Amino acid sequence: MPAASPTGPALDLVVGRAEVLGGVPIARLLPRRPRRTVGAWCFLDLMGPTDVALAVGPHPHIGLQTVTWLLEGEVVHRDSLSVEQPIRPGQLNLMTAGHGVAHAEEGVGGPLRGAQLWVAQPEGTRHGPAAFEHHEDLPRAEVGTTAITVLVGEIAGAHSPARHDTPLVGAELRLRAGRTELPLDPSFEHAIAVLDGGVVAAGRAVDAGQLLHLGDGRSSVELSADQPAVALLIGGEPLGEGLAMWWNFVGRSRQELDEAGRAWEARSERFGAVASSLARVPVPAR
Ligand code: MN
After folding, report:
1. Labelling 126: which of 60, 115, 203, 226 has CA 20 to 30 A away?
2. Ligand 1: distance of its center to the CA of 218 in Å?
3. pLDDT tier, 225 (very low <50, low <70, confident <90, very high otherwise)
4. Average pLDDT over residues 254-269
5. How many C-beta atoms lie closer than 10 Å to residue 240's C-beta?
6. Cα(77) to centroid of ligand 1, in Å?
7. Ligand 1 midpoint to CA 116 (Å)
8. In this structure, are strands 189-196 and 55-61 parallel, antiparallel, or unpaired?
9. How far apart (Å, rounded) are the C-alpha atoms in residues 22 and 122?
10. How many domains does one find in the chain?
11. DSSP 8-state code for residue 38
């Protein structure tokens, strides 16, 4: 019998691992063994709910895009491209790190709840320039009893203008009580993460703070809820590139990650400067 495929159709449920980031309680859903990625999505933290103001000082990234999505509250993003951009619920902040960027994230206080995700960049763009996009008016669609906002890619005929470097989808799903047959791209692998309430996806109950891998090859998934619920659907073509991840870096080798860490320690031009009153985050011990 062949070994189980990491992109097979199995339904694996992941319970968020509790951590604290920038003073805020988070539930880490990716990367987790054995399925570390969903398409190019390689990191997913659910933040809050909390009344603690998020305070993440300047820190570097390489080889990934950060996707910030809030359900409640406000966070100000400042980066080494001199962008200062508040983000509020229903808006998308998308930062592309490429060869190197640095940013700080500062909450304004009051209730905060949301998610931050990373998308691994492919070989073709990961050595390129950093970039930042803010989208306030994302496309929406209705399917069954679900209102969809498309963050990245396309679903149910609605296309997001946000940059993506590999075939990818990311969408917020707001479910009302009832049942929805949500169309999916069968060439993608998918997962659903529940942010609020409870959802039954493909026959499996998924609670807030949990992620269900849906595998690949599905042309749709059945979703239902008894009460209003909020979830994120993520998916994409299986990456096919072996990732190395450490701290805030995504690369292909340990050496590359170490090199990026040394560059941050040396205050290299590679990451630029961030106009933030918060303290610079040091490289963790390895
Ligand atoms: Mn960051």
Report:
1. 115
2. 32
3. very high
4. 97
5. 9
6. 9
7. 9
8. unpaired
9. 28
10. 1
11. B
Q: Is the predicted pLDDT of residue 262 greater than 50, yes or no? A: yes
| Residue spans of beta strands (DSSP E) within 40-122 | 41-50, 55-61, 64-72, 75-79, 84-87, 92-96, 101-107, 112-120
**In angstroms, what is the span from residue 9 Cα to ligand 1's centroid?**
32
The answer to the question of residue 249 being in a domain is: no
Give the position of tokens 């951590």. 19
- pLDDT over 90 at 164, yes or no: yes
Q: What is the distance in A from the centroid of ligand 1 to the CA of 50?
A: 19
Amino acid symbol at 282: P
Residues in the chain: 286
- What tens digit of pLDDT does each residue of 99-149 get? 999 999 999 989 999 999 999 999 999 999 999 999 999 999 999 999 999
CA of 97 to the centre of ligand 1 (A): 10
Rounded CA separation 190/217 (Å): 9
Report d(CA 263, CA 259) in Å as an integer.
6
* 154 CA from centroid of ligand 1 (Å): 25
Q: What angle do CA 14, 16, 18 make, to 5 degrees?
A: 150
Measure the CA–CA gap between 71 and 269, rounded to whole angstroms: 35
50: which 2 tokens? 């909390």
Q: Is the pLDDT of residue 4 over 90?
A: no
The C-alpha atoms of residue 118 and residue 111 are separated, in whole angstroms, by 23
- Measure 146 CA to ligand 1 centroid, in angstroms: 30
Q: For residue 212, what is the domain's CATH number? A: 2.60.120.10
Domain annotation covers residue 253: no
Q: Which domain holds residue 27?
A: 3-236
